[in-house]
Each structure stands twice: as C-alpha cells, then as structure tokens.
Give the backbone structure.
Amino acid sequence: MTEAQIAECPPLLFFDTGVGGLSVLRETIKLLPHAPIVYAADYAGLPYGMKSEAELAARVPALLGRLVERYKPILATIACNTASTIALDHVRSALNIPVVGTVPAIKPASMLTKTGVIGLLGTRATIRQPYVDLAADFASNKILLRHAAPDLVYAAEAKLRGEKPDPRVIREAMEGLMDQPDGGQIYTVILACTHFPLLRDELSEAAQRPVQFIDGAAGIARRIA
C-alpha cells in the first residue's frame, strides 16, 4: 500500500510467525471482503513455541510497535496463540489501537464434548500456559489433555508451499493425545495454534476414528468485524 492509500483507508494488521494466521485471515475476509489487509509474518522468529515467555514478551510488542508506526492500522490481530497467551497484555499496553488476540477455543470445545474429555494440540509454549480464567469458567468439570506438537507448524508451512506434510509428524501428534490416560475418550480436539487448522484433513485421517476439530478462527473474525 502507498502512503496515500494508508491515510485514506487504514488497514487491518495481521501478525503471526508464519502462515498460520492465514486461517484467521480467511474467516475475516468472509465477513469483511473489502477491508485492506497488511499481513506480517515474523519468519526470523519462527517458531515462537520454542521461545521463552521473556523473549516473546519483549519481541512481539517491539515488532508490532514498528508495524503500527509504519502502516497505521485501525486494528491489529495477533494471529498466533503462543504470542497471544504470553504477550497480548504487553502489546495492548504499548499500542493505542484495538488489539485482538487468539486463545484456544476451550469454551466451544467444552460445550460440544459428549464425553467430558477434551484434547488440545498446541506448541510447547502454548500448552504450558495455565489458561486459568478460561478453564475455570468453561471447563472446570472437564478433563483437558494437552500435547505439544511443534513440528505441526513446519508441516503446515510445507503444505502451503505445495509439499506433502510428513505423515509421521501428523501421526505422532494425534498419538500424543490419544495415548494419554483417558485419551481413548477424546472426540473433541482443540487446535491451539493457528497453523494447525491448515492440517485438519491430515489430522482427521491420522485419528483413525471420528474426531471433531475446533479452532477459534471464526470467533476471532467476528470479534475483528
């Protein structure tokens, strides 16, 4: 976008480590098909799920600050679960525009589960966050089984490059959930990384039984709109 275009119609800013945020962008475009978009991917920092909380709490606000200064968006979306669960409050304190974050879809999963056992796939950094408020409000009487599957990020990136994702990575991600105690009762799985919905078909096949995968993209898009 040129400086004149930015001044005339401020864009929506989407920020992620790679292409995972496209799953959120896709749902947003359905609601706001004519909105100008700036999509920024921090490939230099990929993957966020392997970084410490301190690193992300410093890196994400600094990068978003520079992006906001350059593109002057009307709203920013952190289309990354890891960055949101760690740095969202820091970013909101630093910026003077609305900031939408992405958090695991625990509420809809708790409403849909028929067994009371919910699976959650995320990065290492994401699954070690407590989600205290969400869990207390929406899943206090449920069993939430978590599994870190950081390699799914690279599998999703590979798929969007036109390559075939490594089936071993997909299989091991699902086995990491299903092989836990009570894992045999999982029929609802939260995809707690914006990259993971890009692999929904592959994950479904690897599950080898009917599983409902849930992500927050549609709800995030409604919030943006």
In short: The chain has eleven helices and eight strands. The two ends are 21 Å apart (CA to CA). The longest helix spans residues 53-71. Strands lie at 12-16, 37-41, 75-78, 99-100, 117-122, 143-148, 188-191, 212-214.
